[in-house]
Amino acid sequence: LQLVKTKKGAHLVSSCFILDRDFGEEGLKRIAMGDCAVNIDYTDTIDNLQADMEDVLDIATSAELELEAELINTLPIDLHFKATAHDIAARPLNSIRATIYADGEEDGIIPGVSIEGQSTLTPVRIVFEAKDREELKQLDKVFLNLKAEANETKSGISLKASQSVQFKNISLRIKKVNL
User: Fold this and answer.
1) Separation of alpha carbons 82 and 175, rounded Å
2) Which helix (H) or strand (E) holds 49?
3) Is 146 helix (H, G, I), strand (E, B) or coil?
4) What is the sign of the dihedral through the CA atoms of 65, 91, 44 and 51?
5) Which of 2, 68, 98, 168 is deepest in the core (most CB within 10 A)?
């Protein structure tokens, strides 16, 4: 906990909580929250795709993969969702393009709640287009990243330990493949 006092003579104190958490291969992640700002940058990984789909990915010249999920958000802030493809060593596969549809819109924005105690349920669909045969053969991980930067929460709702973001009903399928 970091307390920052304002100018001399003022009786206001600002606080900021900074959490650094080790995420193994993904490295250190920082979450900072304070009374005047919120900064969330969280990444989760779906891995071992190669083990599940190697028989197809090894012979394909191009493919389109589709990940579908439902995202439940009880935070009072909008989240910006991004997905990237990576190899077994967690290096990005830049030629594999990810397009994110959140509630049918191609913007990747997951709405926050505006009434305390409620949640938003957002259907999410990510389409991965892979046109490089070598990178397709290396595909092993998908990083799912949620970011939020806000100076205030919706409707003045405070952040609480009981609020969360949860992915449910995740499925990944090969939608189209060229051999």
Assistant:
1) 20
2) helix 49-57
3) strand
4) positive
5) 98
Q: How far is CA 99 from CA 105, 110, 128, in A?
A: 10, 15, 7
Structure tokens at 101: 């549809």
C-alpha distance from residue 96 to each of 25, 109, 123, 125 (Å)? 20, 21, 22, 16
Pairing of strands 38-46, 96-102: unpaired
Confidence bin at 99 (pLDDT 50/70/90): very high
Among residues 131, 127, 121, the alpha carbon closest in space to that of 168 is found at 121
Report the predicted TM-score, pTM, of the whole model to 2 decimal places: 0.76
| H helical segments located in the chain | 49-57, 133-138
Residue type at position 106: E
CA distance 160 to 153: 12
Q: How many CB atoms lie within 10 A of CB 105?
A: 10
Tens digits of residue pLDDT in 124-152: 999 999 999 999 999 999 999 998 866 55
Run of H or E including 138: helix 133-138
